[in-house]
C-alpha cells in the first residue's frame, strides 16, 4: 500500500543517487500566474524515471537481484532501470519499441543494459517483456503500475512543497500515470488545497478518457510527438490513484507541444522532449486556470532525438506566428516581384525562400503564383503583411 512513510523512505534512499532539481521562475510562460518550472530534464539520465526505477530496484531481495531485472520502455524508464541496475551490480534487459529515438536506445546501452527492440509501440514492448520475464525469472520493473516506482516518483512532490510551500497547483505530464500518481498522492496528503493537473497529448489521451468515462480504457492507437507518454492504457493502480487524487487531466496538441519546446529553449535555455513539455504547453495555452496562482510545471524529461528537433522547432515557429509561407497570385509581367518584395521589406519581415510557379487551373491564364517563406514576429505581424499585400491588389493565401 502506498504511504507517505514509503515516499519519505524513497527520498532517503535516493538522496545520494538523484539530483534535487531546482525550481525555476518562468514569468513569460503565462503572465496571468506565477509560473515555476521543475526541470527533471536536468535529472540524472535526463528524466525523472530514475527515481522510481532506482527505488524499486533498491528494495529487491538478494535472490531477486541475482536473477536480474527486465523492463519495457519508450526510452526514459529504460535508462533509469539500466543505471539503477548498474549501480546495484545486477543484469538488466530492456524491451524498447523500435520507433523510440535512437538517442534513447544508445543511452540505455551505454549504462550497461541489454536492449531488445520490439516492433510497435510501448504496449507491444510490454507484452514482449512479459514473455521474456517468464522465460528468465528476472524481476519485471514496471514503468508506472508499481507502488515502489510510484513512491520514487512521489519524491518530486516532497521537493516541490519544500521549495514552494504555498504552491497553488502543479501540472504533470501523464502517460501511464506513475509520475502523477506519486506526485498527486504526496501533495494531496501534505497540502490538500494544492490542485494537481495532468496533461496528455491529444493523440494519446488514455488516462483522460478513462477518468472521463469512469473506468480504465485502452486506445486502439496512439500518435504524438510526445513519445514518452504515448501509452494506450493506464495502469489499474495509477488509474485508482488518479481518480482519487488528481483534479483534472487536460490534453494538448502536437503544435502546442512544439511551441512549448521552442519557448523553453529560447526563454530558459532548456531542452525538453515532447512528453516533458506538455505541462508547459497546457499552461501556455490556458488549458488550466493559472490566474493569480503559484503554479509549478514538471518538465519531466529532456531526451529528445536531435534528428527531429529541427522539425519540432519548425512546427513551433509556425504555431507561434514566427514563420509563415504565403502564396501570392501575380500577373506574369515585369515589376511584380519587386513590388511584393518592397511591401514585405517595409513591413519588417525577413524572406528566407521564394518559389515561382506558373498559374494552375484555378488562376487566370496570364497569372503566376509566388510561394514565399519568411520569418515574422507573431500572428499580428503576419496579418499586417497580408493586409498590406491585399491593399496593393494582390490575392494572398496562407499555406499550412
From TrEMBL:
Its cofactor is pyridoxal 5'-phosphate. Pathway: Amino-acid degradation; L-threonine degradation via propanoate pathway; propanoate from L-threonine: step 1/4. This is L-threonine dehydratase catabolic TdcB. Residues 325-400 form the ACT domain. It catalyses: L-threonine = 2-oxobutanoate + NH4(+). Keywords: Lyase, Nucleotide-binding, Pyridoxal phosphate. One of its GO terms (molecular function) is nucleotide binding. Coiled coil: none annotated. Belongs to the serine/threonine dehydratase family. InterPro entries: ACT-like_dom_sf, ACT_dom, ACT_ThrD-II-like, Ser/Thr_Dehydratase, Thr_deHydtase_catblc, TrpB-like_PALP, TrpB-like_PALP_sf. Its EC number is 4.3.1.19. In the native structure, TdcB is in a dimeric form, whereas in the TdcB-AMP complex, it exists in a tetrameric form (dimer of dimers). It comes from the Bacteria. Catalyzes the anaerobic formation of alpha-ketobutyrate and ammonia from threonine in a two-step reaction. The first step involved a dehydration of threonine and a production of enamine intermediates (aminocrotonate), which tautomerizes to its imine form (iminobutyrate). Both intermediates are unstable and short-lived. The second step is the nonenzymatic hydrolysis of the enamine/imine intermediates to form 2-ketobutyrate and free ammonia. In the low water environment of the cell, the second step is accelerated by RidA. Gene3D superfamilies: 3.30.70.260, 3.40.50.1100. The lineage of its organism: Bacteria, Bacillati, Bacillota, Clostridia, Eubacteriales. GO terms for biological process: isoleucine biosynthetic process; L-serine catabolic process; L-threonine catabolic process. PROSITE patterns: ACT. It comes from Candidatus Gallacutalibacter pullicola.
